[in-house]
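User: I'm curious what two different proteins look like when written out as structure tokens. Can you demonstrate?

Assistant: Sure. I'll show them one after the other, since each token string lines up with its own sequence. Here's the first protein:
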Amino acid sequence: MKGICSFDRSDFPPELRLILACLRLTPDEQEAQRIEKLSQTKLAWPDFLWWVDHHRVAPLVYINLSRHAAKTVPSSILSELRFRFEKNAQRALANTVELVRLYKIFQENGIPVLPFKGSVLALQVYGDLALRHAGDIDLLVDPLHLGQVDLLLQEDYCRMEPGFNLTPYQQNHFFRHKNCFSYCHRHKNIKIELHYQLLGCHFPLTMDFRWIHNRPQYVLVGGLQLPTLSPEDIILYLCAHGAVHIWYRLFWLVDLSEIIRQEQETDWEKLIVMAREFAIVRPLVQGVLLSHVSCNSSLPDPIRACAALDRGMNHMIRLPCRYIACSEPDNLTILDLLKEKLYFLRLCVKFRDKINLLHFIALGDPWTDIPLPDTLSPLYYILRPFLFLYRRLRGSQDKVGRHEKVRDDD
């Protein structure tokens, strides 16, 4: 492994190493002993809780510490983890009830919708809603039905992004670079992401809705058989999604590692061919390597062979590992941002995708700061540097405000 990737778990802080040891659904005896041993080392427990929250892995961490290290972990820490576990379970149940309700509405209106991640992935991979972080409800819809689903959702939800009606120029730009609408329930703490494609256009995953909908796996959720991504498609999606976000949340890697462990019959040669067709071989190899490094999942020989042939893979591993272990994710320097852009360019295989990415880097979403009529839209290219500085300054002020609030709360 060292010949392919020069990073391993010993490079992580001790608090993070304990968390990584807990990220197994069913640890074996040796892994259980490792959890107990690491919990006996000198740890900064407040930092430990911060890492747990940042990486959204409280459920598995709580379960495994309470089973294998209850005598060595401070009772106050276990209480904090139990609170997080119970709160997450309540949210997962609320999301599931709402998902079933919405799916029935879409069925009544003859609209095919494919739920993914969230509750369906929790049941598909972990067999228990409470064992995976409960965030948004993610739905994939055929773009032809996007307008109809949007209207149905707005009966109970506020649309957050886009938060206003787009002009033709803004709409073209939005659909060129974004992949979903986001909503927040008017009365409940429930959020939805309505995807019309799996990833943004500057890094596309060209598995369209119809292709996925014709080869689903069904999961029993709330008495309904809901269609979702097949195991092969989940692996490809999780790798592409994680790569786009530089894998800065560990729970994405936990999902991937558990699927790799469960799907022992995966045809990795076939999966690599599919990844090549969708131009995501590098994200696939990167994701499986990171899963191996961080969560100790197996490293299939075809993936190992692809990694050995990719001279840039070491770089593609180092940056995510740094982000995983970064205790100040909001404190990025200009050099860090430049490394990010280079990383994204290396992810893009097709020249068209690189151009789309550069276009998005150059322009972003400027109308959120300064709305202009479409006839003046070329001015956004001139305003872009000033808007970038404005956002950096605003972000710094917001960060100071957050720190002051923390001090006031203490």
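Here's a second, unrelated protein for contrast:
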Amino acid sequence: MNLSRTSILIKEAIILAGGLGTRLKDTVPDLPKCMAPVAGHPFLYYIIRYLESQGIKRFIFSLGYRHDVVETFLQSHFPSLDYTCVIETAPLKTGGAIKLALSSVVGEHVLVMNGDTLFKTDLRELEFVHLHKNSECTLALKPMLQFERYGAVTSTEDGRIIGFQEKKYLDSGNINGGVYILNKKKFLTEDWSEVFSFESDYLQKECSTRDFFGVIQDRYFIDIGIPQDYARAQDELKYFPFAMNEPDNTWTLFLDRDGVINVNKDDSYVFKRSEFVFKDGTLEAIAQLSGLFGRIIVVTNQRGVGKGLMSVADLADIHDYMKSAIEMAGGRIDDLFYCISTDDAHPDRKPSPGMAFRAKEKYPEIDFSKAVMVGDKAVDMLWGRNIGSLTVLIRSARFKTSIDPSSVDITCDSLFEFAHLLQHNE
């Protein structure tokens, strides 16, 4: 097995989403805690989107209280998501819930995450340590200052976990961030009871005899379990337009093709290079953007190939022409990903984020939180939101589909206008 820090081998995640949210019942009555509304979406939405952006492709949702609400949400908002729901008929606590959910896990290792916590961990690093150390359970640890709500985790210099402190005031320490990678086979060697706590009965009691490791990551963390932090999440998880002087060579620019780079062909597809017409100012715009962004990648749905109206060779010829003209004008396209499927639920077809994951696998340095998606359609804006990037909508007369304003950070008349705004920091 290649233990590269840039590879993501673990593709499955268990989300513990059956909590009642007792401490939030006055604020969020009659809802599972993971479904508490935060900045226009259920909290679970942010967890799914973040894990997708990290390369997780299959989800197992451990449900209990009001599981129907979660199931309805998943069916309506994530129709193409690969997921399974495992439902508790009686409360099993966290350990019992994980044990039950493991029956639906295919792989040897699985990510486990609490449904009321968003810890934006670097899963590549977590996975690397887990596999390199041959760990049974690897915890993501969040460093904190001046806290008493959480107990601290004690570990050795090489990351081995040797103890858990009770909740008390501490000036500093590392807390259990509620994100784990678990070795399924090793965990199930124990004949666990049906109902038990993963934290106290497994982690705390077994840390002296089992191989548990921790990875300290000082990254974004929010736990909505109490009203104060729930209120804080409302502000922190909003999407805000970016400052025009933010993008630099560590950023990635994703571009849709038709309607952004070239003129849309009315009620049809661009079948050959002679039909490919650059929009006014596009060549100059991409030349300017090439000096601002570290990587520029085109992501485009091309259903015409899937319908048999044109060939892959025809598409390649169009793209060769496009890239050559852009380079001659002083710009560049670093790579291009396309989806020819006619199936709207295909994982690579926008708004599903498959093409983004393919790009990240090829270029592991891509950080979706430092990326911009420019498109002219609702699916482009949703694609951007699905990977956690910022979004720029190019106004288009052709597409009348209603676009959710919350999915758009900036609206421009053209790619040229967007480049001009960035160049002049307006």
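A detail about the second structure: The domain at 12-236 is CATH 3.90.550.10 (Spore Coat Polysaccharide Biosynthesis Protein SpsA; Chain A).
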